[in-house]
Amino acid sequence: MRPTLPVVGTAVAALVLAAAPAVAAPSTDALISEVYGGGGNSGATLTQDFVELANKGATPVALDGFSVQYISASPGASTQWGVTPLTGSIAPGKTFLVAEAKGTGGTVELPAPDATGTLAMSATGGTIALVSGTAALTCKTAADCAAEPRIKDLVGYGTAAVREGTATGALSNTTSASRATGLADTDNNSADFAAGTPSPTNSQGETPGGDPDPGPDPDPTPGDKRIHDIQGVTRISPLVGQKVTNVPGVVTGTRASGDRGFWIQDVTGQDSDPRTSEGVFVYTAGSAPTVAVGDSVLVSGTIAEYRPGGETGSNQTLTEITTPTTVTLSKGNPVPAPVVVKNVPAGYLPAPGGSIEQLPLEPAKYGLDYFESLEGTLVQVDDARVVGPSNTFGEVWVTVDPDQNRNQRGGTTYTGYDQQNSGRLKIKTAGALPSSNVGDVFTGATVGAIEYTNFGGYTLAALSLGTHASSNLQREITAQQKESELSVATYNVENLDPSDPQEKFDRLAEGVTTNLRSPDVVVLEEIQDNNGATNDGVVAADQTLQKFSDAIVAKGGPRYQWRQIDPENLKDGGEPGGNIRVGFFFNPQRVSFVDRPGGDSKTPVQVVKKNGRAALSVSPGRIDPLNDAWANSRKPLAGEFKFRGRTVFVVANHFNSKGGDEAIHGRNQPPSRSSEVQRAKQAAALKAFTEQIRAIDRGSNVVLAGDLNDYQFSPALKTLTGDGNLRALIETLPVNERYSYVFEGNSQTLDHLVMSKNITRFSYDVVHVNAEFADQASDHDPQIVRARPSTGDANVDKVVFALEDILDCLKK
Q1: C-alpha closest to that of 55 among 17, 97, 84, 103
Q2: Which residues are CB-contacts of 13 (< 8 A; sequence separation ≥ 6)?
Q3: What is the Cα–Cα distance from 193 to 420, expressed in whole angstroms?
């Protein structure tokens, strides 16, 4: 953190500098914007080293009496700082070029420098400082230089010992270090700078071989292509790869960080075809856009289709003008009125059995065709209701169709492969995004440009947000179980390990004790080993489970015991080194666990007959762990429990993830769901195990619980429940209430409780405490069933249940 440079004409500048503290706020005006030490070296294009300064303030900054100084990456006792004195000033928003030592190589001269020195900078590592004064610095460590009040700004590159925070990466004869995001000064060189092609610019705007601020042609006129010609009637521009000249438009928005560029829209030459967009994004790569909203411009460049996530992925593309040259004709022009997005078609996408990219758009028939027809266009969404909570990337999901599969808590429920909910739209903003939960509303108008992005597809790049109004969404608390009911819950605790903050353990524990009301059995998924993602062969998870158990006790819950089996190292998928697994918590005051030794990571549990009833050969035991269905995936864990003398078999599950599936909004329709193949095998293996139990004891109590990573209408769930012997409890809820997870604005089901049909008396609940909220302890909601296990004889059940009902009433 550095003192502020004096503004031109400020008489008290010397006094201000003299009083500056050793540590001050980051620069708000002049700073180092680029450093290059490979000039004139072998392979270099430029003949000379340089340091570029910039002024991000609103007033000129005087440089008289200041200097640029350099020291090598590893200064020794005799190493001295080199000094280049400066004179002149930096205008607001402009740069100032300091030329340094010249080599014998290279072919391109720097533009006319604003100051010249003789510093022989290293191409790969060193430190440059902008200093108030011309006396050489004496500090030689990062700490000493941080306490030097004369240093205005400093950048260490490569292996530099003197640096702010972490040094930038190593440079070369062909790369410089440039401030990467809008001249941000966070006092961390690695965060503020990025390596790239040297781009020296002097105070006149001149670049190597360029002219200063070239003005428009004597009589600039639009070329023969308009924006609708570029966009065309399909998702791929008919001009892709071609150069266009002087495409006219008015600037409707700019983006100075991330994928830098600006949007333009045709206001005079629109066509009447609803399939062709009249807006397009102009991509300026590493340079912040120099145009402003309301500028009337002519843009020349190359038409490209950018595919977020890479060309081999399934995403669609964003049509862009790249490597642009822009002529500004006039400023302050009216911006076209945004298109109000409403009445989005219920159809999602055509499904030709392959790529949709060359199909003519049908914006009146398909929701995503409608959004594509507006790509690059300024649009407005009114009173946008949140259907996917905000995240740390400045993103939130809303719906433009408030009635589409709406659930009771304000979300949009995913009810089938043909019900993709076309009204969903991601909003992304570069500014502050209020923390937003499902059901909240951005009242009034949210305005921005439509584009296609990674992780979600069609996105409103917001230029202004409506007013955030909270729906006051509350975390649910399930009903209190009866004394006669066995309660079994499932909870994916999202990569839990001892290194997680205590707050996470406490919040998960609060969820178990308060929101789930301390279930008798809790099936846990994503329990990591004792050192989490550290990949060192550790597989034990006793410390993780102990810390979680302790947190539950501290919240007033029972002292749970646990059962689990350590996996083989790196064999169960998940975060590398984490060795996630499933396991059981159980309350020994309410339920007992039948321990039968012999279960390990490779030994399969068998169903055996004991006293005429089904039993497990080992308990806990893994189901068919050597079956390739479980390759690189969690193996199900079966446990035998006793509740009021009745046997209940509980199986903890975590099926393989959807990784590798194509995006539902992607170019191939219908999308390939390749991960379903393994889950179908896993469901078949699990179903076979339950049938082994039924073959011995048709009246047995079986509960399959966990994160099955699939929907209630999926092939995997149909494999489990298709014959009617098992039921997926999620299907006992109203259709629009069947969800435990929110992904890209779709409330959907991944977690399940599946139960044998002979358990007829039960109540079931998905307890919404996480997935709909921006502040989450896990990304999954837990769920719980409170059930009366069967005795195995329907007539006996009637008597037993009647007696239990009487006892429950007496306890009230």
Answers
A1: 97
A2: 6, 7, 62
A3: 41
Distance of alpha carbon 562 from alpha carbon 593, whole angstroms: 9
DSSP character string of 327-345 = EEEESSPPPPPPEEP----
What's CA 108's distance to the chain center, in Å?
A: 42
> What are the tokens at 322?
């790249």
Q: What are the DSSP E strand ranges found in 115-242?
A: 115-116, 126-132, 151-157, 176-179, 193-196
Q: Put residue 693 in one of left, alpha, beta given phi > 0 → left and psi -120 to 50 → alpha.
A: alpha
Identity of the residue numbered 363 = P
Residue 141: other Cβ atoms inside 10 A = 12
CB of 115 within 8 A of CB of 131?
no
The pair of three-digit structure tokens given for residue 168, joined into one six-digit string? 């930038």
Tokens of 299: 């843009």
CA atoms lying within 13 Å on the CB side of residue 474: 4
Alpha carbon dihedral 369, 371, 376, 377, in 10-degree steps, equals: 120
What pLDDT is attached to residue 808? 77
What does the pLDDT read at residue 16?
A: 28
Give the chain's largest Cα–Cα span.
100
Contact 592, 650 (CB under 8 A): no
Q: Give 202's contacts (C-beta < 8 A, 6+ positions apart).
A: 95, 96, 97, 110, 111, 112, 113, 114
Question: Mapped to the 3 state alphabet, what secondary structure does 605-671 carry?
Answer: CCEEEECCEEEECCECEECCCCCHHHCCCCCCEEEEEEECCEEEEEEEEECCCCCCCCCCCCCEECC
Other beta carbons within 10 Å of 288: 16
> What pLDDT was estimated at residue 658?
95
How far apart CA 347 and CA 345 sit, in angstroms, is: 5
**For residues 754 and 646, what is the distance between their CA atoms, to the nearest angstrom?**
19
381 with 389: CB under 8 angstroms?
A: no
Tokens representing residue 106 in the block: 């290279």
The position carrying tokens 């100051």 is: 115
Give the whole-angstrom CA distance, residue 53 versus residue 203. 9
Beta-sheet pairing, 151-157 with 126-132: antiparallel
Please give the Cα distance from 334 to 216 (Å, whole number).
21
Nearest to 231 by CA among 361, 99, 387: 361
Q: Point out the residues of the chain with pLDDT beneath 70.
A: 1-25, 181, 210-219, 812
Q: What is the pLDDT of residue 219?
A: 58
Six token digits for residue 645 = 């003398």
Q: Are 261 and 281 in contact, with CB atoms under 8 Å apart?
A: yes
- Rg of the Cα trace of the chain? 32
- Rounded Cα distance between 129 and 115, Å, is 15
Closest CA to 230 of 303, 146, 132, 138: 303
Cβ(282)–Cβ(301) below 8 Å: yes
Instruction: Tell me which residue has tokens 């309660």.
Output: 487
Give me the amino acid identity at 280.
V
- For helices 502-510 and 542-554, angle between their N-to-C axes, nearest 10 degrees: 60
Instruction: Look up residue 362 and give its amino acid.
Output: E
> How far apart are the C-alpha atoms of 418 and 421, rounded to whole Å?
9
SS3 per-residue string spanning 362-425: CCCCEHHHHHHCCECCEEEEEEEEEEECCCCCCEEEEECCCCCCECCCCCEECCCCCCCCCCEE
Identify whether the C-beta of residue 667 lies closer than 8 Å to the C-beta of residue 357: yes
Distance CA 740, CA 729 (A): 12
For 354, list phi and psi in degrees, rounded to 5. Answer: 175, -155
For residue 204, what pLDDT is reported? 87
